[in-house]
Structures are given as C-alpha cells and as structure tokens.
Amino acid sequence: MINTKEIEIKDYDYELPSENIALHPLPQRDESRLLVYKDDKIQESAFKNISEFIPDDSILIFNDSKVVKARIIIENSKRQKIEIFCLEPILPSKDFQITFSAVKKCRWLCMIGNAKKWKEDVIIHNFVTKGKVIELRAKKSSPVNGVYEVDFEWNPIELSFSEVLTLVGHIPLPPYIKRADQRSDAERYQTVYANLEGSVAAPTAGLHFTNEVLEELKAKGVDEEFVTLHVGAGTFQPVKHEKIGDHDMHGEIFFVTKALIEKLLNNKEKKIIAAGTTSARTIESLYWLGLKLRENSSVKPENLKVSQWEAYENESSGKHNVKDALNALYEYMKFNELNSLQCETQIIIAPGYEFKIIEGLITNFHQPKSTLLLLIAAFTKGNWKKIYEYALRHNFRFLSYGDSSLLLNF
Length: 410
Hints:
By secondary structure, the chain is an alpha/beta fold. It contains ten helices and 18 strands. Strands 2-1-18-17-14-3-12-13-16-15 form a ten-stranded mixed β-sheet. It has a six-stranded antiparallel β-sheet with strand order 5-6-7-10-9-8, with helices on one face. It has a two-stranded parallel sheet with strand order 4-11.
C-alpha cells in the first residue's frame, strides 16, 4: 500500500523540452490533438472527434469559472514597472462576486512583482477610457509569506472593481508562457462556457471545447453539468520539498448546486467524466464533504472544507459508499434550504488516492514535479510515464495552450 506522504517528488519528474511548450493557442480550438488512453492502450485523434470516445451514457462535468484580468501593471514615480497579481478578495467580502461588484474601494491578497521598487506609500495609476481619466490608487501592506494585502481605491467611484480590471488589467498567462499577453488571449485563455468570474488561471482542459463539439456531445445524449472552482495561482506552484508530505497544498473555493448532487445520486450507473483536474478535484471533494456531514450534520455551511490529507486519514471512508456520502450532502442542502453550496477544498490527489466518483478525465499535459501530474499519476494507476513519453515522442504540445488527453478508467 502506498504511503502518499512518503512519495518522493523526484519520481514525478521528466524532461520537458522548451519546444514542446505551447506559447500560443492553435488558430482553431478543437484542432488540437487528442491522446486517448484506455485499457493500457494509447491512440490519437483530433479533439474535434472527442465525442467518438465518450459513451452516450456519460455525465460530463465542466468548470465554468471565468478568468479575470488579475494582473495590474503600474509604474512608480521613477517609471519602473511593478506588477500586482490579485489572488483573492478580502474586503468588502471574501466572496469574489461581491468584491467584483464593489465600488469606490476594495482589498485583495496579492503577489507583487518588483516589490522592492514600491517605496511610495500610495502608487497612483491613471488611465483613459471613453475620453475619461480613471484614477486607480494602490497601497500595500507588509508581506506575509511572500504575499501582500493591497488596498485599491478609484475614481469615478461608480465603477465596479470588475470594470476597473477589465479596463486596466491583463490576462494572467502562466509563468512558463514567456511573452506579454495579447488582445487575443482575452478570448483564447477562456473557455467558451465561462460564466462566474474568479479564476486567475484558466481551467485549461476546457480551452479545446467549441460550441460545435458541445452540440455534438449533446446530440449523442451526453449529459453536461457544471461546477465552479476558482483556480488560484497555486496551481502553478511546483512541489519544492523532497517528499509530498511536506508540501502545503493551496486551497480553492468551489460551488456546486443541489441539482448536480441529485443527478449524481440518481445517475443510474452513468460514467462520470471530469473536464479538467479542477472539475475532478471538485467532484471528488463532494465525497469527503458528505462523510464530514455524516459525522456532524450541524457544521455551518461557511465552515465546510476538505483539508489536504483528509482523504488519506479519514478512517470512516471504508464504511460509507458514494451514495451514502452524496445523500448526506443532499439532505444537508435540503435542510438548510440551499440551492448551491460554497466550499473550500485543499485536497491533494496523488498516488495512493482511490477515486470515488470520476471514471474519466479530460486534461492537458502538465508540468514536471507538479501536483497536477501527481493527480494524473493517481488516476492512471502509475502509468503516467508511458503516456507522457508517448506524447513527447510524437511531438504533442504541452501545458496550458497545448494538446489534450482523454483518460478512461472503464
């Protein structure tokens, strides 16, 4: 039996040539290549043909989080560039939608690039839109663990912070895409079904889908459902410790509806396929939330969270099946008159994890020594090297703007 905390990250390293990293998306989303892995066999196709490989008795679950222009580039009094990367809201609320709607001022937890150049108490950044000058004022606190609290104020005050970001912000391309963002990235680093603002990184598995592909899946009878998990910058954080047990997994906020829980409860043996690792983490987290509620149904909704190691330390997991857990979650939402539930998950899925709900996964090719690669290793039962060696040998494009894979465990 694998002791997940003792896993050494060096065993999940591989050489990724720079020429295999996709720096730009293809002209057409669904023209990307598709690697299909099932029954220990690999075959190739184009993503536009993915409906041929997904059974009609499937539920395909997407993450509809929308990427925000979370990077603000300002200049100090010496005209030196400073980058503010908005990670998560603090005031007026930790709820993304409330803070995006805020007028006049708000506060965010941020990473700051070139922070040593920020010596002024307040930096003022002026920009023009529709003939009007907009003034944005930013004031930072002292750093804690490398991140800062930044207070933003702006005029005219009737603008929402979402509108401010739309006007002045930049798309937060991943650090391995070493180029400035372009106007086209505002569309292409976003899924066609993006809905709720909150991500600072795209749920990249969804970038391949077009409306035509979605229509083909619907026509085939595949059920399409949505969750929302706001992807944080921690998704790019490599595992820096030798052993997985020393890695501090980032937490992310997600939303699920009571209707989705009910559908999962009554799925009549349909295959559950996650479009992306974020959807997979969300759906798997539901099982552990359900177990928590079976043990203590009086937990307040705002305190519902799946901790990093809960899936490996909860001794009651062998006593309750998926239906038990989902039923507890459904009854909890029903009792509390909740049509949707906001939770946080810090779950780390790595070899040794037993998947409870999902049986298929659509995903891109991930960085060496990353928690995303650990998830792939867990899902493929250790066969990730075979898949990745094939993809590299056959010149698949890697990372966010790269090609796709469909991994099936049925």
